[in-house]
Task: inverse folding
């Protein structure tokens, strides 16, 4: 039985859940508690990765490099990971300082059809002997054949694996099975899957991804993450355990960290609410939720309408500036009626 | 009237678009269109138009130096650094479109007149040409800006191999030039490549963190600047008027191309070739005519 590798993005995607305002105390407590739990890596930083702290995608409360340094001090057994999206951060300004801060595993992300933009970054990290994974975001926007071409590029740059992100939480079980199955039969490198919970299916989607050949399970404790949240790792690990699949995670400890440390960080009522269901339905990247709600309020238009319009326009990760344009259009349409 | 004689170095899409634009001016003519690729369809097309072409690159410019007033370099960063010494020795006015740090940083609307006096001008990046004029204008109102951020989205189809492999350089060059032109210390630049079909036009959003600002005055100067830039970049259009949320001012400007050689969605390429042509014409009007 293949051992699933647990990529813990609680302190990365989870940053979205608190509008990029994780505190030093929270990072410290979480890392101290989760260290050695059996997670392969703890990824820490802004929700959109290094260099993404911006008006466009939300300003970080803490400096991104300080976040890594704090985590570094507390993680003795579990590896420290950093995430970067090409176009937001650069090798010089972000990757080099993150290496110096002690990150030993990197995820380099791009929109699912633009893998060639990751070449300089992956190649640089590989040349430094650092373990690196390519990430294809918004994977639902490309065919499996195209995804394979893009994944092969990532493979050719020297990455150890490729992680598919269902960034909009809009997958079906059939789609995951089809795409992951196809890629795993054609690729030599490890495949990973990162799901979102817009339709309440994140754990199921990740489980099916594993069954179809993905070894990396990228998620967060409690599902703490952007939009409707992510694959809840402790639930997935429990499911694996029940099925006799050894993930190497100490489930009891993970449940404790989830309850005692992550639960208090997340002041939500129900993350799978009307707005995140519409978001998943429209196929819009989860990370824009707070900005959509804020602008909807400012412009007195409906957040759901904004999401549907963003979906029609096929916005990709990072295009948060379109929200304002859409809100203005909706408002002027409203006024003209 | 004698036209300014332009030598174009680089026969890729940018070089060819420059050539088409030159054909539409009254003051410029292309005397040599030189590159390195003997299989280039562009060279063949240009040669068929009766324009002198060569595959000897910089050597061709040396050979034809007596019939060149201005050299526009539309090669790559690597090539530019390689042949810059030779360009220098030719003593011609050089307009550099490669993502290198050499030459005086130039945004025609802001410092074009002053830039005709340098040996080499550097056209920064497409994102820089689109956003710096508006940022500069907002600063002119005397408001207190502590941070400027720009987000440029371009279509995947308009992003060639060089663009894709130089995204870091784009980010660093754009934010560095923004800092230089505005004097604002904290700047950031983001780039997004959008694969949608049909391809999207280039869009640029500029955010300012502002303490105090006269909104009416900002709107006015932004509107005036749009018209000024439009004079040399016809597809330059503000699509989200200045808007304030909390202490953040946002403006979005779209750039569609003129369709001279490159398709209309390639506003990101058009804006930099337009800016280069504007500088060639300025050099003609302010320097060449006076010398003659």
Result:
């Amino acid at each position: 039985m293949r051992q699933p590798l647990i990529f813990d993005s609680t302190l990365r995607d989870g940053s979205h859940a608190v509008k990029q305002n994780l505190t030093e105390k929270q990072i410290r407590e979480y890392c101290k508690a989760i260290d050695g739990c059996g997670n392969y890596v703890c990824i820490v930083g802004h929700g959109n990765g290094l260099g993404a702290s911006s008006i466009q995608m939300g300003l970080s409360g803490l400096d991104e490099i300080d976040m890594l340094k704090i985590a570094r001090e507390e993680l003795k057994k579990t590896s420290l990971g950093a995430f970067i999206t090409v176009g937001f951060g650069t090798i010089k300004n972000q990757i080099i300082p993150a290496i110096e801060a002690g990150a030993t595993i990197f995820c380099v992300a791009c929109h699912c059809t633009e893998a060639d933009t990751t070449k300089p970054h992956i190649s640089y990290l590989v040349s430094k002997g650092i373990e690196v994974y390519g990430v294809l975001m918004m994977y639902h926007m490309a065919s499996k054949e195209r995804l394979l071409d893009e994944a092969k590029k990532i493979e050719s740059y020297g990455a150890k694996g490729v992680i598919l992100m269902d960034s909009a939480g809009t997958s079906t079980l059939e789609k995951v099975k089809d795409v992951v199955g196809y890629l795993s039969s054609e690729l030599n490198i490890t495949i990973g899957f990162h799901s979102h919970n817009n339709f309440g299916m994140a754990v199921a989607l990740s489980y099916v991804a594993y069954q179809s050949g993905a070894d990396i399970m990228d998620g967060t404790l409690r599902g703490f993450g952007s939009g409707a949240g992510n694959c809840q790792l402790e639930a997935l690990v429990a499911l694996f355990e029940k099925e006799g699949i050894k993930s190497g995670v100490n489930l009891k400890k993970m449940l404790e960290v989830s309850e005692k440390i992550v639960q208090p960080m997340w002041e939500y009522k129900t993350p799978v609410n009307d707005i995140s269901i519409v978001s998943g339905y429209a196929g819009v990247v989860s990370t824009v939720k707070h900005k959509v709600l804020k602008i909807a309020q400012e412009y007195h238009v409906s957040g759901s309408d904004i999401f549907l319009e963003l979906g029609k326009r096929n916005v990709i990760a990072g295009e948060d500036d379109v929200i304002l344009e859409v809100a203005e259009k909706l408002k002027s349409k409203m006024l003209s009626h | 009237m004698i036209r300014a004689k332009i030598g174009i170095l680089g026969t890729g899409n940018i070089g060819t678009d420059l050539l088409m634009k030159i054909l539409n001016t009254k003051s410029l003519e292309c005397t040599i269109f030189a590159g390195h690729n003997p299989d280039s369809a562009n060279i063949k097309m240009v040669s068929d138009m009766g324009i002198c072409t060569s595959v000897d690159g910089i050597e061709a410019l040396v050979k034809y130096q007596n019939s060149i007033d201005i050299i526009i370099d539309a090669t790559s960063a690597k090539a530019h650094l390689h042949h810059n010494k030779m360009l220098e020795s030719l003593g011609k006015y050089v307009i550099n479109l490669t993502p290198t740090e050499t030459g005086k940083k130039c945004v025609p609307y802001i410092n074009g007149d002053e830039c005709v006096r340098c040996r080499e001008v550097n056209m920064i990046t497409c994102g820089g040409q689109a956003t710096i004029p508006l940022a500069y204008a907002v600063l002119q109102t005397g408001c207190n800006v502590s941070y400027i951020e720009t987000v440029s989205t371009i279509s995947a189809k308009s992003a060639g191999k060089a663009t894709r492999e130089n995204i870091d350089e784009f980010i660093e060059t754009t934010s560095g030039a923004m800092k230089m032109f505005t004097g604002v210390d904290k700047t950031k630049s983001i780039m997004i490549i959008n694969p949608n079909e049909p391809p999207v036009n280039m869009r640029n959003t500029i955010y300012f963190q502002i303490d105090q600002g006269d909104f009416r005055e900002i709107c006015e100067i932004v509107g005036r600047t749009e018209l000024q830039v439009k004079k040399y970049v016809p597809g330059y259009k503000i699509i989200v008027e200045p808007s304030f949320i909390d202490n953040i001012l946002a403006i979005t400007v779209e750039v569609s191309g003129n369709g001279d050689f490159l398709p209309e969605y390639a506003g990101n390429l058009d804006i930099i070739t337009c800016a280069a042509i504007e500088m060639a014409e300025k050099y003609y009007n302010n320097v060449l005519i006076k010398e003659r």
Notes: Chain A touches chain B through 31 residues (CB under 8 Å). The mean pLDDT of chain A is 96. Chain A has two domains: 5-265, 274-336. The beta strands of chain A are 5-11, 41-44, 79-85, 105-111, 131-137, 161-165, 190-194, 216-219.
